[in-house]
Amino acid sequence: MTTMFELGLAIDGFTPASDIAEQARAAEAGGVDTLWIATHLFLRDPVALGATALAATRTLKVALMAISPYAMHPVHAAMGAATLAELYPGRVVLCLGVGAPGDQDAAGIERPRPLATLREAIAVCRALFAGDTIDHRGAVFTVTQRRLVNAPCDVPIVLAASGPKMLALAGSDADGVIISGAASAPFVESCLTRVAGGAQGRKIQNSGIVYTGIEGDGVGQGRATVESLRRTLGFILRGGHHAENVAMGGASLDQQALREAYAAEDWEAVDRLISDDVLARHAACGDAAHVRTRLDAYHRAGLDHVIVSGITDPAEITAALSAITARP
After folding, report:
1. Are 195 and 206 in contact (CB under 8 A)?
2. Distance between CA 86 and CA 61 in Å, rounded?
3. Where are the alpha helices (H) located in 107-213, listed in sequence order?
4. What DSSP line would sit under 55-86, residue for residue?
5. pLDDT tens string 302-319
6. Is pLDDT above 90 for 130?
7. Domain 6-212+288-325 - what CATH class?
8. The pLDDT of residue 1
């Protein structure tokens, strides 16, 4: 049986590029609508991975997530997405976002005026996808008297957002929003309220990443996946900007102690601080029935498109998706 919501799968770029075709085929066979391929500096290129995933499948969509206009000019981002869309019409999504601060610091990339930068990046990409001869003269980008040679093309634009102003921008300017992983369901609901405020009645697709680990039910590395998520969630939730998320989730978590444990690489302390209660409130972990209940909770919080993350082995993808969609 199918889920009540659109199902996505996120791939982070840590696994070998040679795995992407099998990952994509497993995702498509398991009922996934969109494969979200992360853009992390110093890891694997999402356009190359996306092209391989699209070539290996028949209907699967690919989202390039989340390309930063600080690291890649919006013209170049639009070129990459439009070229994939020329080859695979209707199967490509462009996701824009500020990007990971640590990666950008390592590359010497500054990030001034994020709201204006993302607003203009969306505008530039949208005009290019429409096939317009663009005349954009903004405070951040200037793009004049040129058009994409392979436009118009149908490429939805999704914004990765977390702060109130960026969430409102997703509602007012983008075709969709994606909420990052480790968000509690109440925090997702709060974020989507801000998106709706910016949308003012516009139809926006609400997507969100949910870190997922299934124990038992024939899922090969289930328990190991669940345990590995403690450090993934610890890495994310140590950030001070997640204070509201943690508070709304309701779990007891000492973020300062978590930051100190991560800085000291005290993994025992990290695993202890990311308790079973934190996992329960900020991820979907447990047996298949419980995971389905958790994913449904994120759907009820407002997600149209629930993106499973943390599962990368093709065989485990197959088993996990089968467990998720096998409703009684």
Report:
1. yes
2. 13
3. 114-129, 164-173, 185-199
4. HH-SS-EEEEEEE-TTTS-HHHHHHHHHHHHH
5. 999 999 999 999 999 999
6. yes
7. alpha beta
8. 44
